[in-house]
């Protein structure tokens, strides 16, 4: 369940932890910058702890005849899945292009719609009411990291917030081992899918075979051949 905390609440919390509620030298702008810095850090740790689908967003791409390269969303962080829509109620997952496999593929030859599932970057906090999803209390880690930096600037003892940080980081590590029990213990064999991306006797509408991430773009390809 989401547990959202506002930028204003993070700044207030950091001031309380660092005992600087009345310090005019610790400005809102400085605390906002610290909040955004540490939101990114905590967000990355939570995404890595998984499952990543908790944070997923979906965008659509429509291929154009002869076009390989399609720009990614501006908030793109990393890719989860790419599906081509074969019909209104059928999707087929595309596999990544095999290593050094570019010579076996060509540009799309038709217009097909794809669903691209990805992890976005965290939203930048700017206004007092902007929020960060701490999920199960991990917004406390952001506040303590902010307080630590403030205390370091004031040359005060940060031992209490350092202990809080260590405790919360430990929670993230333990959580990563327990949150998703549904994944296989061993990797699936993808060799056949890489060699023949379209299944035997395939009759779907699209001929898309695979994708490749390159710079800020998603490249989409058809195979030069399929199973006879």
Write a concise keyword list for the protein shown above.
228 residues; alpha+beta; five-stranded mixed β-sheet; four-stranded antiparallel β-sheet; 5 helices; elongated
Could you explain the architecture of this structure?
- It is a single chain.
- The chain has 228 residues and is of the alpha+beta class.
- The chain has two domains: 4-51 and 124-176, no CATH class; 57-120 and 199-223, no CATH class.
- The chain has helices at 7-18, 28-49, 139-154, 159-176, 191-195, and strands at residues 4-6, 57-62, 69-71, 76-87, 90-93, 95-96, 105-106, 113-120, 131-133, 208-214, 217-223.
- The strands form three sheets. Strands 3, 6, 7, 10 and 11 form a five-stranded mixed beta sheet that branches.
- A hairpin with a 2-residue loop joins strand 10 (208-214) and strand 11.
- The model is unreliable at 178-196 (pLDDT under 50).
What are the SSEs and their pairings?
Blueprint: E1 4-6, H1 7-18, H2 28-49, E2 57-62, E3 69-71, E4 76-87, E5 90-93, E6 95-96, E7 105-106, E8 113-120, E9 131-133, H3 139-154, H4 159-176, H5 191-195, E10 208-214, E11 217-223
Parallel strand pairs: 6-10
Antiparallel strand pairs: 1-9, 2-8, 3-11, 4-5, 4-8, 7-11, 10-11
Helix pairs in contact: 1-2, 1-3, 2-3, 2-4, 3-4
Summarize the structure.
This protein has helices at 7-18, 28-49, 139-154, 159-176, 191-195, and strands spanning 4-6, 57-62, 69-71, 76-87, 90-93, 95-96, 105-106, 113-120, 131-133, 208-214, 217-223. With 228 residues, the chain is an alpha+beta fold.
């Amino acid at each position: 369940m989401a547990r959202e905390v506002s930028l204003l609440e993070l700044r207030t919390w950091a001031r309380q932890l660092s005992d600087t509620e009345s310090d005019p030298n610790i400005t809102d702008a400085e605390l906002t910058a610290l909040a955004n810095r540490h939101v990114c850090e905590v967000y990355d740790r939570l995404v890595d702890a998984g499952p990543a689908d908790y944070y997923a967003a979906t965008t659509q791409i429509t291929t154009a005849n002869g076009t390989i390269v399609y720009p990614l969303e501006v908030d793109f962080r990393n890719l989860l899945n790419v599906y081509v829509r074969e019909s209104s109620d059928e999707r087929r997952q595309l596999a990544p292009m095999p290593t050094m496999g570019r010579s076996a593929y060509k540009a799309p030859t038709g217009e097909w719609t794809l669903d691209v599932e990805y992890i976005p970057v965290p939203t930048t906090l700017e206004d007092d009411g902007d929020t960060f999803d701490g999920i199960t209390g991990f917004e406390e880690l952001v506040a303590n990291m902010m307080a630590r930096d403030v205390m370091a600037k004031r040359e005060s003892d940060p031992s209490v917030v350092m202990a809080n940080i260590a405790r919360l980081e430990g929670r993230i590590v333990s959580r990563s081992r327990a949150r998703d029990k549904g994944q296989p213990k061993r990797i699936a064999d993808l060799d056949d899918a890489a060699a023949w991306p379209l299944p035997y006797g395939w009759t779907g509408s699209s001929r898309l075979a695979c994708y490749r991430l390159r710079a800020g773009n998603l490249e989409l390809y058809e195979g030069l051949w399929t199973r006879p």
